[in-house]
């Protein structure tokens, strides 16, 4: 069965800044979607903030197994209803991947529970992406380190609170460090934050970065279709609670 | 310096149901506040949902070091602005304690990132509260188990996702189990969920439960006044990032 | 490629106590191995403490992807060399499953880093095994709760320190509770502790328990053959550290 | 009541290499002990591997609340009995701090459960120690970053498996990164790994590094004297398990 992947992006820089449109003529979402489409088990769609209902109308999120999210300039304008839907879907099992400046995106903050603020930032300069958790599926086949010739730096302290696994840590020219690959579990859903991917540089065209994104989508894919939810109907006090002979899913 | 503690409750059952008003004539918030006031370093206030601005007007949350939260019947009506403020304050360091049915409270869900749903519930019957993490400060001086003669059961699976420490686990008459004392870290703030405390039973009058609540407030109290935040001003690209000679707080 | 599974057991009760031999005529290891052999991708072997070199001679552990371990009466006599090998293999990626009274087994203690002591125990009585983490692959297709008619109780506090995921929690007739399904990560290896499985009762003959064990073996199976290790050769100080173009595995 | 602190070191480089003796004339242990002795609540002792019974005879560890451990050249010769005692004491509540090259020390490996291997190393060059968890008590009053002008680099992947909190991450001249301040919980004990501290450089003479070490000792200090252990006596099957009215400590 296919994994239903939705790549969401604000699609703002690409439409308003020619220099960035030149790097991502198909949009950041289009470049990422093309990279993922190489995987035959992924059924990839895109959605953007400039579309009606910010691209999230109808049952799109309910029909999404893995959601990738890129936002930056206008992410404060994302509708709170969508934020709440993302959080509900993650709890039900949807995988969620926040990309680069989406550390400040409302749904990432809603799912992680913190501000997502980085201590600072700087445009330009080399980023080395080191694997901190050797053998993690997301790092499978990935060189150590990955060299990103030009990147936007974010740095520690990164306000994400309690993390599950630290898969990647980046080092920058100024000696700064940043946890650039982090896993979180929320309800039945797996969450990943991935640092590299600034709009001014062709980072999402890099084959190694694309391989990481494919690994990430595999990793956050729910084990089973995330459609069943925990019942919360009142219980009869004369009967034991539980689905005897039933399933916990 | 005093720890500024705010006990917030919806104050709904107590005002509308005589049987419950008989158990908690001062309100659930009043009973809890009195229990905490025994600790000389705590400066305790109460606030309730039936007050103007749901009790959270002015700078109350910005002047709170530890917030205890009890909600049930009308917690769907809590204003989203308050929810966002609680989340911001926790990130800055405010301790947050969700009590009993507040597993479904908006701010608990916002901070933890999941639905907080319990698999089921049942009114009445004994609850045994076992210490799972011996030696944890919250369990200091607490018998193992604590016996709650009559309680409302919640049970597993409890949709809280990734937890930090499992301090208490309760066992119920029907053989059900529930993680009834859980810690979470979010940003600089410590978060605790505590299960026992249903409005139909005088649980918050129990001296052992009161001792646990005092231990909890001590434990979630921020190490330093949670007033400073991480800077996020743009950085000069010619200067190294960081507060050389400064402080990380 | 097959998953190379080794079921190790002390094989002591079965050889010395007729009542137990009647329940497990093929040994506990034999019953578990037969349950796992139903999975076509598992290549299952057994090894026992009463064999030469305690069953762990030659390259057995180096050729094992998943090790299940049952010990009780004579587990204090397990050779420390074997313990060290288990710990090394887990760090390299071998899955390790400690069963029931193996909470006190030397290799479990070595891998987890604590005493593994339970607060108490009792023979007989019903155990209800509740799924705490709904949607976890180990709980896939498992009723909630699983009913074990007769079991040996262990109870909280369970000295395992910091755990990763709490998959199962059991409730017992006396109201006691016990975290009976726990995951840990150590280096590249996944570790699982599973509570049910006392020698006096036919628990390992139960089809649901057998399904859990198969789920567990799938879950702890390393993502890739756990044969490569992290290099630790001295680095040339004039060259950057890292496998540029190489792999982190 | 005083915190009984023991600073253990192998005391090998200092006795055999004049250049290192010139940096640490009182031994690495002596320099650290002097730095800690400034704190009036600490009662500080030292012990070294070149002493009888490797400095760990008698009841020293049973009378230690916090153990700091520095080892490198001869740490493979540490007696396994001592290793086992350290692990037991940590489970009972003793704080344990592994320093620099003690990532390969037997007791650190025993407590953490992994190999502790770093991906590589390099002598010399600047280390910037960044606070990753702002507001953590160990980072209290510490500049971000701390600048260590000359250090020995260790780098990721660091084989420590599952960590609790990532307090510090270091960046090095070659762009490498290393989680240089990590917390672990094992049983009742708190464990900290701290990276900076190579014998060739006067790092332990640095006032900021000394302040971090004092913060660390405060943080790993057990909440109560770690003398009581969990009972494991057989339970009477006709009586409920537990210390009704007793204490979980």
Describe this structure in words.
With 249 residues, chain A is of the alpha/beta class. Chain A has a domain at 3-116 and 180-220: Class I glutamine amidotransferase (GATase) domain (Rossmann fold), CATH 3.40.50.880. In chain A, 22% of the residues lie in helices and 25% in strands. The first copy, chain A, contains six helices and eleven strands. Chain A has helices spanning 13-16, 18-23, 27-37, 80-92, 106-112, 207-220, and strands at residues 3-9, 42-48, 66-70, 95-99, 121-123, 127-131, 146-148, 152-154, 165-172, 177-186, 189-194. In chain A, strands 2-1-3-4-11-10-9-6-7 form a nine-stranded mixed β-sheet, sandwiched between helices. A two-stranded antiparallel ribbon of chain A has the order 5-8. In chain A, helix 4 (80-92) links the parallel strand 3 and strand 4. The longest helix of chain A has 14 residues, at 207-220. The radius of gyration of chain A is 19 Å and the shape is globular. The first copy, chain A, starts with a strand and ends in a 29-residue tail after the last helix. Residues 226-249 of chain A have low confidence and may be disordered. The interface between C and D is large, with 45 and 46 residues.
Largest interface (CB < 8 Å) = A-B, 47 and 45 residues
Q: Helical proportion of chain A? A: 10-25%
Spans of chain A of at least 5 consecutive residues whose pLDDT stays below 50 are 226-249
Write the H/E string of chain A, N to C: EHHHEEHEHEEEEEEEH
Please give the count of helices of chain A. Answer: 6
């Amino acid at each position: 069965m296919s994994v239903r992947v939705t790549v969401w992006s604000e699609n703002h820089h690409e439409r308003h800044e020619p220099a960035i449109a030149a790097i991502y003529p198909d949009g950041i979402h289009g470049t990422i979607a093309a990279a993922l489409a190489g995987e035959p088990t992924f059924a990839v769609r895109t959605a953007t903030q400039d579309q009606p209902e910010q691209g999230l109308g109808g049952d799109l999120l309910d029909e999404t197994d893995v959601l990738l999210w890129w936002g930056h300039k206008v992410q404060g304008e994302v509708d709170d209803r969508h934020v709440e839907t993302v959080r509900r879907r993650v709890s039900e099992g949807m995988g969620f991947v926040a990309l680069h400046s989406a550390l400040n995106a409302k749904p990432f903050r809603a799912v992680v529970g913190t501000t997502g603020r980085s201590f600072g930032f700087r445009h330009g300069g080399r980023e080395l992406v080191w694997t901190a958790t050797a053998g993690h599926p997301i790092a499978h086949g990935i060189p150590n380190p990955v060299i990103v010739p030009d990147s936007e730096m974010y740095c520690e302290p990164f306000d994400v609170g309690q993390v599950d696994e630290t898969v990647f840590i980046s080092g920058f020219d100024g000696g700064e460090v940043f946890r650039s690959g982090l896993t979180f579990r929320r309800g039945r859903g797996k969450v990943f934050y991935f640092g590299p991917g600034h709009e001014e540089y062709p980072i999402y065209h890099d084959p190694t970065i694309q391989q990481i994104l494919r690994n990430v989508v595999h990793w956050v894919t729910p084990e089973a279709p995330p459609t069943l939810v925990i019942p919360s109907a009142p219980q009869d006090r004369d009967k034991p609670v539980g689905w005897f002979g039933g399933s916990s899913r």
